[in-house]
Amino acid sequence: MKKLQKVTLTINDREVTAKEGMTILEAARDAGIYIPTLCYHEKLAPYGACRICTVELSRNGRSRLVTSCVYTVENGLIVKTESPKVIKVRKLLLELMLASSPAKAIQDLARQYGIEKRRFEADKTNCILCGLCVRYCSEIKQANAIGFVGRGTERRVVFHPEIASTVCASCRECFSLCPTGKLPSETDGVCFDDLTLDDFLKTQQSPA
Ligand code: SF4
Ligand code: FES
After folding, report:
1. How much is the mean pLDDT over the chain?
2. Is the pLDDT of residue 125 over 60?
């Protein structure tokens, strides 16, 4: 097996050594450097949906913003996790997320970045489309009981009743992953019509 090379980069003025193939987020975490995340999960493939983990990197005198949970480390990278540009992007993302969900996880981050009032209004879908539920169900449980439908502003998460009815009642592992609490508190209402997920799961658990 090929031995992984060591990569040396600088994060927030500290020299950090990482293994080849690691992401900037993983290298930072290994070094005890905080980068906020909402759609990242260590057991799941990198996804890069929420962009809250954005960092600024410089190389050969040029700087740009990248998504640290998907960008892999390279020798000589200079990374700033809280530069003014990074903070500006995170603030905007959080303001947009707050319009979709007033969940505690989003509010806590918003407070951390000094956002005091909402600038945008939108439908409170209570879903930030992080995909944790969908990816966990597919990658870890290999059940695909939940998925995305629609595009753009119509994009949302739905349970697939024909699969959910056979697997969800005894699993529910995605519930605790959802950063907004949407999953434990409600269901989409499209696939299930007027049935809530709770009603649905209770139905499945009732004795025949
Ligand atoms: S329901 Fe929750 S876990 Fe699933 S995509 Fe929306 S916010 Fe993420
Ligand atoms: S945590 Fe990196 S894009 Fe969501």
Report:
1. 87
2. yes
Looking at residue 83, its pLDDT comes to 97
Residue to substitute in 37, 41, 71, 128 for testing ligand 2 pocket (most ligand atoms within 8 angstroms of CB): 37
Contact at 8 Å (CB) between 158 and 205?
no
Ligand 1 centroid, distance to 29 Cα (angstroms): 24
18-35 confidence digits (pLDDT tens): 999 999 999 999 999 999
70 backbone φψ class: left, alpha, beta (φ>0; ψ -120 to 50): alpha
From 41, 42, 53, the mutation candidate for ligand 2 (largest count of ligand atoms within 8 A of CB) is 53
pTM value is: 0.87
- In the predicted model, what is the mean pLDDT of residues 85-92? 97
Q: State if residue 55 touches ligand 1 by the CB under 6 angstroms criterion.
A: no
Do 187 and 168 contact (CB within 8 A), yes or no? no
User: Domains of the chain, with CATH numbers?
Assistant: 1-124 (3.10.20.740), 132-205 (no CATH)
Pocket flag, ligand 1, residue 187 (CB < 6 Å) = no
More confident site: 100 or 143: 143
CB of 157 closer than 6 angstroms to any ligand 1 atom: yes
107 pLDDT more than 60 = yes
Decide whether any atom of ligand 1 lies within 6 Å of the 78 Cβ. no
Q: For the beta carbon of residue 64, count every other beta carbon within 10 angstroms.
A: 10
Task: For residues 145 and 150, give the distance between their C-alpha atoms in angstroms, rounded to a whole number.
Answer: 17
Closest C-alpha to ligand 1, atom 3: 178
